[in-house]
What we know:
The complex is a heterodimer of chains A (300) and B (158).
Chain A: H1 3-17, H2 20-30, H3 32-38, E1 45-48, E2 52-56, E3 66-70, H4 82-102, E4 107-114, E5 127-132, H5 150-168, H6 179-191, E6 195-197, E7 200-204, E8 210-214, E9 226-229, H7 241-271, H8 279-287, H9 291-299
Helix pairs in contact in A: 7-9
Chain B: E1 3-6, E2 10-14, E3 24-28, H1 40-60, E4 65-72, E5 85-90, H2 106-120, H3 127-130, H4 150-154
Antiparallel strand pairs in B: 1-2, 2-3, 3-5, 4-5
Amino acid sequence: MTSEEEQMRAMQEKLAQMSPEELQAFWKQRCVFCQLIDGKIESKKAYEDEKCIGIFDINPASPGHVLLIPNEHHMVGPQVPEDIIQHMGRVVKRISQCMLSQLKCKGTSVFIANGGPAGQQAQHFMMHIIPRYDEQDVPSLSIPSNPIDQEQLAKVAEHLREYNEKKFGIKINDVAPTPEENKVVEEQMVKKHIKKEGGYLYFVDKDGDIARLPMKAPKGTPQEKIIITELGPMDKPAKPKKPKKKKVKKAKKTAKKKTKKKAAKKKESKKDDEEEPSPLEEAIIDEGETDLDRISRLFG
Amino acid sequence: MNIIYEDEQCVAYLHAAPASPGHVVVTPKEKYTVIEQMPEQLSGHLMLVANRMAGVLFETLGSHGTNMLIQNGHGAGQTEAQVMVHIIPRKENDGINFFWKPFEDKEKSEIAMIKLSECSTNIVLSDKEQSASPIEQTEDVEKPKNTDWIHQALRRIP
Lengths: 300, 158
């Protein structure tokens, strides 16, 4: 037996005798990423705050690949305290936003591996944020799809539902919506309209399409929704180029209008606390780029 | 619908055509096509629920590991116009492989790093959303149901 093998065996025995707490401390000591956070190993940082850091992967899947790592040592996601996970989720959004604006990529993949069988290589929990320049640049990050016995699936769901209701103290409603409920939803979406123009209300409907409704319909005729851009089923054949250009122009126009509106709204909101901008509009305030712009870039 | 988790902001359900048995999808109840549209607070909450579900898969289905994947944008292989967090339970040698080949052009990587860090190092999370505390459902269990509409958005056949 060589000395290396002896060392391995000694190590295995040592590990087998340790308590979970000792194991955690043991791995923390040897963890490359903890040393990196402490500054013992050099790295290129993309982001840093009191709870987590973002570093550039030394073996990136694509240019600009960022690893988001909690400062505390945790092995897998479920061990990480909830406030840290939440914090990281918010940072992920912002980094992904930066990627879209700075790298002009066509999308981002957020990937997490928990545990060895899932492909985790380091002993430290991390989120990968990978800019995607086209669908084929990281082909392995696609989700396979297999047929499954639906009855069995329903049984598993039932089991998990009961488990979650107990664990999180929630009630879960597993009923499909009625047409009336769908109508209510559509009305809500109309209330959150994107803009008013030329007697029409523009809004995102429940299928994710941008549609418009006449603000005042002639008496006796039902209001008819007209769908302008379909974002729904995405595997439809690409639209011809000319209308696309128009779409971008429109979006730019709306962007200008919106910023004006927002400025007005900000003033109003000081007086009226009730009239806060909707989340959709808030997302626009952050960026200066409108949803329409972004969507047309991401899916156009 | 096979919904397994629900709160005010998001739902989780079992995928009807899973990558592996127990494949869970977490999605916000409101309609958002990409992460960038979501408010910061929701993005954090979605990740929290996804992480909870990963824990549940460890506990109930005895998975040996889990993968979490968000396909954000068409370029990332997104097929439905709704933000979805996929949680895929894994077992040893189950035939699924998410490994990627390292990108080799170092010069391009370097340029991307410089460009990105210009923006990402200046991120300041908004304070307003920071104050929003994590949601504990235990107290307000009985609330009027008005959110079933998500079911439609959940299962859109392309």
